[in-house]
Amino acid sequence: MSLIDFANPTRFLALTARILPWLMASTVILLTIGLYQSAAAPDDYQQGATVKIMFIHVPNAWLSMFVWGVMSLASLGTLVWRHPLADVAAKSAAPIGAAFTFLALVTGSLWGRPMWGTYWEWDARLTSVLILFLMYLGLMALWRAVEDPSRAARAAAVLTLVGAINLPIIKFSVDWWNTLHQPASVLRMGGSTLDRAFLIPLLVMAIAFTLLFFTLQLAAMRNEILRRRVRSLQMMQASQKAA
Amino acid sequence: MSLGPYASFIVTAYALVALVLAILIGWIAIDYRNQTQRLRALEESGVARRSGRSAVEM
């Protein structure tokens, strides 16, 4: 089955109905394992038990950028290939990405207060993630402001691709500028600097959160397809009444 | 399991993540119910898709 086969919304809905229960079950199992491992992880020699915030902060931070990456690919699908599900995917991902970005900011703040002595600092990493959050909100506002989904899709796709410039800025902000936020410790040249006792629960939680994203994304895409069916049926109903 | 002197920060962080994710999941579930109800109502009022298939068909 090729990618073009999924261009048919009815076929996509059928596939979603089959995949969603498995995705949900996998997410719950991995989240349970990840939470157990996070609870059982030892205290850090410097941070003590606050290191446990890392197991939820880092997956949310990764997903805040990953979701924008998914939206950027979907935007290419809208502008270049005009795939009928591309803008459905982009629109559905925005609120989910906004939620993950919000959680990355808040959990980072709650981790920063005991470790850095402050909830917030206008350093490059924190500020660029805040800008990402505001861009998610802007995109959601744009989708709501334009009534015609295809017109909104093109404008949102351009904005998403322009906003993708922020992703490398977020990633490398800790290398390019002198920041209060620590440099990369997992995805870096030379391998992770984290001890296995922290790295394994972190990776399990990251995979669990990624599965959670795909679960929510498929469910939200299904809703958006149904919403568009409602809209087209309402338009048919209105034209029948007018005739 | 002792969470040390900063237990309130750790518990608040986990509780907030749980709360926001629960709201997100609930919002998506309610949205699904609303859309399927609206589609059924439209079908019952006699509006049909051009393909003739049910609008809530998966």
pLDDT < 50 stretches of chain A: none
**So what's the oligomer here?**
heterodimer
Number of strands of chain B: 0
**Category by helix and strand content of chain B:** mainly alpha
Residues in helix, % of chain B: 55-70%
Structural category of chain A is mainly alpha
Low-confidence spans of chain B: none
What is the averaged pLDDT score of chain A? 91
Strand content of chain B: under 5%
What is the count of DSSP helices of chain B, taking H or I runs of 4+ residues?
A: 1
Largest interface (C-beta under 8 Å): A-B, 41 and 37 residues
What's the story with the biggest beta sheet of chain B?
A: none
Distance between the termini of chain B: 47 Å
| Helix-strand string of chain B | H
Measured between the Cα atoms of the first and last residue of chain A, the distance is 42 Å
N-to-C series of helices and strands of chain A = HHHHHHH
Mean pLDDT of chain B: 88
What portion of the residues of chain A fall into strands of 2 or more residues? under 5%
Number of helices of chain A: 7
What does this structure look like?
The complex is a heterodimer of chains A (243) and B (58). Chain A has 7 helices and no strands. Chain A has helices at 9-40, 54-81, 86-116, 124-145, 149-163, 166-176, 196-242. Chain A is globular. Chain B has 1 helix and no strands.
